[in-house]
Fold this sequence. Notes:
Helices cover about 35% and strands about 20% of the residues. The protein has helices at about 20-35, 45-50, 65-70, 85-100, 110-125, 150-175, 190, 220-230, 270-280, 295-300, 305-325, 375-385; strands at about 5-10, 35-45, 55, 100-110, 130-135, 175-180, 205-210, 230-240, 285-290, 330-340, 340-350. The strands form two sheets. It has a seven-stranded mixed sheet with strand order 3-2-1-4-5-10-11, with helices on both faces. A four-stranded parallel sheet has the order 7-8-6-9, sandwiched between helices.
Amino acid sequence: MSQRIGNALIGQSGGPTAVINQSLVGVIEACVAAPQIGSVYGSLQGVQGILDENLIDLGLESPADLERVAQTPCAALRSVRKKPTAQECERVVQVFRAHNVRFFFYIGGNDSAETAHLLHQVALAHDYDLRLFHIPKTIDNDLMVTDHCPGFPSAAKFVAQAFLGDNEDNRSLGGIKVNVIMGRHAGWLTAAARLARTTTADGPHLIYVPERPFSLEAFPNQVQRALDTHGRCVIAVSEGIHDLEGNLIASSGDIDAHGNMRLSGTGVLGDFLSERIQATIGKGARVRADTFGYLQRSYFGVVSEQDALEAREVGRHAVRVAVGGEVLHGSIIIERRGTPSRYEAGYGVTALENVAQKTKVLPPEFLLGDHDVSEAFVDYLAPLVGPLPRPGRLSDLPVPRKLG
């Protein structure tokens, strides 16, 4: 039997997802089964919980309870948006020593990868033997190296299904509909709305992502062309769209702990674009706007089966790598394998510095002009999201007129 090395600690950080607890449970299961690991602890509210020594014993949870947790969206350990200072990193390592934590798993996005990288550097400076792994999570799908991020496919499924329904609503009553979707620097989630376009007449008719500069001057003309072609217009727009100089089209003005402008949870952009449409196309235009906000990352019942499977597996793989001892720190990645017609996932690890505070944007081959995405993107995303509903349509066969 392998010699016991020490205890494990797990934290969750950043915005929740529909499958973040699958990763948590994957880590717990693998840690409990690993002879190299003693107790398995959880930190309530990520790195803040470590600083406060607010830890719980996850090894006491029953398998049945853990499975219910895995099926529940959002962070079971609660989450935090905090970048620890140098002094706080020193405190974290002290807590690790006090509880003989030799395995640390931090589930989160690129800000969380940065926190993991900072803690790794401090542990090295103190010659503290720590196996530290970042486990990817983000609906934005903007982490480098990994093919995609757990949480993104389920959020993409939510967006696609929301647009399927919204397109039918717009088809019923006509007019112009603007939907604002999460995506600060990368438009992956907004691009997912493209899956809702089941025919060339269906929305979204216009898709705007941060990878392309947004022109306020061209926007009304593009809306008008969609109206002329389809008699209506459904628009998908990322919250982070900006002009040629990089200035946000609209924002709340609030800044978080990592220096990010708060864009989600406000209707600022949707209201601004609606007013712009009415000011240019006409006051009589029927214009509505919604901001999907936090629902798209935490909605019960809209989960990609593939996403849930992969989220659990990245947690298990992190533990396998950690106890294997060949790699002592890093970020877990998903690798796309198989063939174009048969998707398969593989798992690996990359250095923390390859992920921390970096952003992966939509590549040019996934974009089509300045307000659409390509079939190549659809081919990339479809196997991750899985089957979607297909709207039923009447044949619209006319009854002959009786009166002239």
